[in-house]
Write a structure and sequence with these properties.
2 copies of one chain form a homodimer.
Chain A lengths: L3 H8 L3 H9 L6 H14 L5 H8 L4 E6 L5 H16 L3 E6 L4 H13 L4 E4 L7 H8 L4 E4 L9 E5 L1 H14 L5 E5 L5 H16 L9 E3 L4 H13 L6 E4 L2 H13 L9 E5 L13 E4 L2 H18 L7 E4 L2 E3 L11
Parallel strand pairs in A: 1-2, 1-3, 3-4, 4-5, 5-11, 6-7, 6-8, 8-9, 9-10
Antiparallel strand pairs in A: 10-12
Helix pairs in contact in A: 1-2, 1-3, 5-12, 8-9, 10-11
Chain B binds a DNA duplex (30 and 30 nucleotides) through helix 2 and helix 4.
DNA sequence: TTACCTTATGGTATCGTTACCATACTGCTG
DNA sequence: CAGCAGTATGGTAACGATACCATAAGGTAA
């Protein structure tokens, strides 16, 4: 592979001059530029970013560390991140943690070793360890989708509590009194917040949130399936399910199908997170949608800004609103 | 940030010895290992992979260059790639080309600059330019999902022609005689092959593939929508649509909805590519599914092997079978 | 004329690792 | 006991780029 030195020799200039032309920095004459450029083309020279990064202590790489790219919410986020990053000449690495703190830690370690310029992190747990680790290695980070204790960091997320409140309120207005919560993992802020919103909506309506109607599980189909099975075995049976995310809803749907229960005739089902944009041609599930793409854009812009300025300005929290989308699965007609 | 030299000083050894411990290579005593490891922990040392890569000419990074991660097929592929790569200690960069050769070229250039160890490429067009470029820079590459002219390269793909043939045959057996093809972009092997399969199935049954029933578009919802609108405006109207991929099908579905046409009662609709695994709880669309996850696993393993061996052994082509999944949208009962 | 700024270019050191080669001790073989 | 393999460790250079400083020509302000 030709190096900058080979180009320099061929163009009859010093390597540093080639560097200037490549990076369009400093002074060089038009004639030099041309000589260098033809040399580059003739040799098929490609600069080595490892060497550059080693010297400049900057790379043009970002990372997106999330739970699972297969989740339509994160798929959309990933696309948004890559759109902004790609436009700015950055490259994006993605990592699936599957909500495992261990995997998260391993990946962050690797990413720091690779000197990524910045990280978009969906933390597996509401613990500051990961962020502290990154801070120690002065790797800029923006937390995505979830809250974290301690406020000195950038966060872009949705108002899970308000969203949950709104959609549970919808169920209540539809006349439901026994609404089961198929929750996410305890200790994950989105799960906790959605539970809170659920409880508040019930409390406001004078309904007591019976303990046995509330379950906590994982943000997976399997967990949704399990929780739904348990919930329908209660008597009296709940008349509605609130799934804390889309995967839980899919699992619940499967359980209900197996039991021969019709949605929404036998049981209403609503969920957090919309289907992937490509699939909204199947207008079935009533959901609270998060603006995944917008979140990604905001977060990435914020991260890039953070990386540019390198300033130690206060962490900033951007909370975007959710959107209630009423489709078939909630059934009925609004009562009040 | 502490470097290997700082660790060496603290442990009272030479940098090279620290390197040996980190990489578990060469000889060192148990006592040295411990001294080095405590020094590493005390300092919070993290090796610099840029420096390592510069010296060893190897990085632990892969890239997945595809058209759009938002497409459920590629989402699944991405997950599979990351699973295998992550397990092997590699990190994966992803790039969306949106079928644009220019974007593809830009990304490949950037990736070569970053010295990625290998690339999984879904080529935007059936042209060898990109692969040649990578070959020139000795970056191992495995082509995914699509064929490419010239056989000296690794390819992992599905048999699009056979899959299309099978699903069109299904429509024919259901009694359809006017089957419209909502095709993908000309010059993309999957699109071309699916058209071929369609034509052959028709020919075999003595049906002539009327030209006006065949359209070529893009692998997008918008294009599917457009093509479907045109197709239904023909008279006599086609009785079935074959969409060359999932996005086209979604767009077509939208058009049909708008026209008040019921699927499958008024018109049958089948497509290439399944829904994302999470969403198969909506059993509607009859499809030919590609084993996206398996393809990804095979391709990534092949790529890693290629990178290890560095050998110049022949390119190998792995063609996986598709699977016909009959659901509602094809309607009817099989005739013969 | 002197001083100084702008333009154009180059020399040298350095980023943090590891490749390569050298040194030296131990213990075993013949 | 020479010779050699195995173990343990270190010195030096190099990977390919850029930071930093230096040099020099030309123009212009005082």
């Amino acid at each position: 592979m030709p190096t900058i030195n080979d180009v320099a020799k061929r163009a009859g200039v010093a390597p540093i001059t080639v560097s200037r032309v490549i990076n369009n920095s400093g002074y060089f004459s038009e004639e030099t530029r041309q000589r260098v450029e033809t040399a580059i083309n003739e040799l098929g020279y490609v600069p080595n970013r490892l060497a550059r990064g080693l010297r400049t202590k900057r790379t043009n790489t970002l990372a997106l560390v999330m739970t699972d790219i297969t989740n339509p919410f994160f798929t959309t986020v990933a696309r948004g991140v890559e759109d902004v990053a790609g436009e700015a000449g950055y490259t994006v690495t993605f990592c699936n943690t599957d909500e495992s703190e261990e995997k998260e830690r391993k990946y962050l370690d690797l990413l720091v070793q690779q000197q990524v310029g910045g990280i978009l992190l969906v933390p597996a747990r509401s613990r500051p360890d990961s962020v502290n680790f990154l801070k120690k290695h002065s790797t800029p980070v923006v937390v995505l989708d979830r809250r974290l204790p301690g406020g000195e960091i950038d966060v872009v997320r949705c108002d899970s509590e308000a969203g949950a409140h709104e959609i549970v309120r919808l169920l209540i207005n539809l006349g439901h009194k026994r609404i089961a919560m198929l929750g996410g993992p305890k200790g994950v802020s989105t799960a906790d917040d959605r539970l809170l919103g659920y409880q508040q909506a019930l409390a406001e309506s004078g309904l007591n949130a019976e303990k046995e109607l509330v379950q906590a599980g994982a943000f997976t189909q399997e967990s949704g399936y399990e929780m739904a099975r348990k919930a329908i075995s209660r008597s009296p049976r709940p008349t509605a399910f609130f799934a804390a995310n889309n995967f839980i809803a899919f699992g619940a749907l499967k359980a209900l199908r197996e039991e021969g229960l019709d949605v929404p005739d036998d049981l209403a089902l609503v969920a957090f997170d919309d289907l992937p944009p490509a699939l909204v041609t199947f207008p079935f599930l009533t959901v609270v949608a998060q603006p995944a793409h917008e979140m990604a854009l905001e977060a990435t812009k914020l991260l890039l800004a953070r990386m540019e300025s390198d300033s130690d300005r206060e962490g900033q929290e951007i909370v975007l609103p959710t959107e209630l989308i009423v489709r078939q699965s909630s059934g009925g007609r609004i009562v009040s």
